[in-house]
């Protein structure tokens, strides 16, 4: 069972998961506050940007895997302590601890009352089944597969730059004001070693192989919709909210 590193099971190479029809619509019909969403998508698909926008739209917390681990460690929760031990040892965090950290976060008042947007979890069918059981009887409203072509992902990630000191992100299209010196801390802005084309392609291949069974499972549960992630941020957000609201309306969900 794949673990998580602190801060994507698998399918044979060449096997493609069943896909939901891609929603390309751009009109938002209804805004319904509150939602329980899982966001899937390869690195560079724009998940981070869209998760923030959806969190504001539905007035729910955006919960990323990294944020959950950092918060659990800081709050010294039971699973936070266990996760920190593995992180300090440089080891993968086992599934039991990952699920425990997620459950602790989802038991907090804001998620219980309003819902959530999960980014980075679940990564396997086992995690998805466990999440659904924990959230029963409602489960998640929808799992969204944000579709962006490999060529666009390569262009975005290969052009990404990061400050070595504070971690602020830049790109070749959005450079610092003075050379490659960070606007905020004065650190050097560089290309990450793992943002080379070869490294990116390896990560994308691994993601596709690991995520294919998860996408198939959510499709079988009638909880998956694929949304076209190409275009401006506003266009993509409109497609997402339209797809989410339509499916929630069909199921009679109102926050």
Could you characterize what this model shows?
The protein is α/β, with parallel strands linked by helices and 255 residues long. It has a single domain, classed as P-loop containing nucleotide triphosphate hydrolases (Rossmann fold, 3-Layer(aba) Sandwich). Helix content is 44%, strand content 14%. The chain has nine helices and nine strands. The strands form two sheets. The chain has a six-stranded parallel β-sheet. α1 (47-58) packs across α9 (233-250), α3 packs across α4 (95-106) and α7 (150-158) crosses α8 (197-220). The radius of gyration is 19 Å and the shape is globular. The protein starts with 21 loop residues before the first strand and ends in a 5-residue tail after the last helix.
Topology:
Blueprint: E1 22-23, E2 35-40, H1 47-58, E3 62-64, H2 65-74, H3 78-88, H4 95-106, H5 109-114, E4 115-119, H6 125-134, E5 142-147, H7 150-158, E6 160-163, E7 169-171, E8 189-190, H8 197-220, E9 224-228, H9 233-250
Parallel strand pairs: 1-9, 2-4, 2-5, 3-4, 5-9
Antiparallel strand pairs: 6-7, 6-8
Strand portion: 5-15%
- CATH fold type: Rossmann fold
- Provide the succession of SSEs: EEHEHHHHEHEHEEEHEH
- Overall SS class: alpha/beta
Query: Structurally, how many domains make up the residues?
Result: 1
State the CATH class.
Alpha Beta
Name given to the CATH architecture: 3-Layer(aba) Sandwich
Give the number of DSSP strands: 9
Number of helices: 9
Look at the structure and give the mean pLDDT. 85
Q: Tell me the helix content.
A: 40-55%
Rg, rounded, reads 19 Å
The geometry reads as globular
